[in-house]
Every structure is written in structure tokens, then in C-alpha cells.
């Protein structure tokens, strides 16, 4: 049976790989919280309940205090107009509908190997080919499309 500090360390490694798979700079703080719990166990013999409290408190304190710093440091920056440039290059191009699009609810399209939200004034079924008309929202993540 592995020791408790090793288990906490391995839990941290799992959180680290999960952060790499789903970037959002949230799970990394739970990784750090796991490692802090492992260090606490190396320093003193604490109960399981206290280990969980150390893990949760450390994770949440780090999340709420350091996430902005991490986002500024590692988040990257877009040049002004980058969203408009992408949508301008996409206008007139064809894409494949991967989730049905309805006038009341956006669907999803596959364009240039990535999945994007898509909005249309008519219902478009999954598997249909559409033409991109332009940006569908201010966030730059949704395209307005029409059936081919």
C-alpha cells in the first residue's frame, strides 16, 4: 500500500495532466493543493479529515488569489482585430454542421479542423453543409451561417 503523501502527490499529478488536457487555469491550483497536503503529511501525522481540509483550503485560497496573476502571465494576448480578421477570412467558406442549428438555439460547425458555435435564421440539420456569412456574436466564437 503506497504511503499517504505519495497518494496526495499522485492526485496532484492527475490534476496537472487534467489541466494540460483542459486548459483553463483552474485544475492546476488543485494540483498545488494536493502537493501542499502531501507536504503537510510529511511534516506531521494528520487525520484524513484534516488532510481534506488542507487540500480544499489550500486549493481554493490559491485559486482565488493567484488565478488572475497566472492568467495575465500565461493567458496570452490577441492583437487588436484578430477576431475580425478570422471572421473576415471565414466569410464565404463552407463548414460542416456537427450539432443541429435552430433559430432559437445555436448549434455547432466544424471549420478548419475546429469546432465553432453557429447561429442561423432557419433550422439546419446535423451533417449539412453551410456557408459562413460572418460573425454571429461579439465574442468572436460564433459564426452566422446559412444552408449551402
UniProtKB/TrEMBL annotation:
Domain of life: Bacteria
Transmembrane segments: 27-44, 50-70
Membrane-protein topology: Multi-pass membrane protein
InterPro entries linked: Membrane_assoc_protease (IPR052165), NA-bd_OB-fold (IPR012340), NfeD-like_C (IPR002810)
Domain named NfeD-like C-terminal: residues: 88-134
Signal peptide (UniProt feature, chain positions): none
Subcellular localization(s) per the UniProt record: Membrane
UniProt key word Transmembrane helix: yes
Keyword tags: Membrane, Transmembrane, Transmembrane helix
GO cellular component assignments: plasma membrane
Protein's name according to its UniProt entry: NfeD family protein
Organism: Desulfolutivibrio sulfodismutans
Amino acid at each position: 500500500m503506497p504511503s499517504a503523501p505519495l497518494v496526495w502527490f499522485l492526485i496532484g499529478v492527475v490534476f496537472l495532466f487534467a489541466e494540460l488536457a483542459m486548459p483553463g487555469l483552474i485544475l492546476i491550483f488543485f494540483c498545488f493543493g494536493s502537493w501542499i497536503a502531501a507536504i503537510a503529511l510529511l511534516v506531521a501525522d494528520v487525520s484524513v479529515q484534516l488532510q481534506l481540509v488542507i487540500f480544499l483550503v489550500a486549493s481554493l485560497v490559491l485559486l482565488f488569489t493567484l488565478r488572475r496573476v497566472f492568467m495575465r502571465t500565461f493567458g496570452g494576448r490577441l492583437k487588436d482585430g484578430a477576431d475580425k480578421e478570422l471572421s473576415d477570412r471565414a466569410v464565404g467558406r463552407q463548414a460542416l454542421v456537427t450539432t443541429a442549428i435552430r433559430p432559437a438555439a445555436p448549434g455547432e460547425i466544424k471549420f478548419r479542423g475546429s469546432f465553432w458555435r453557429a447561429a442561423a435564421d432557419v433550422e439546419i440539420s446535423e451533417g449539412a453543409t453551410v456557408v459562413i456569412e460572418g460573425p454571429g456574436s461579439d465574442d468572436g466564437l460564433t459564426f452566422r451561417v446559412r444552408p449551402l
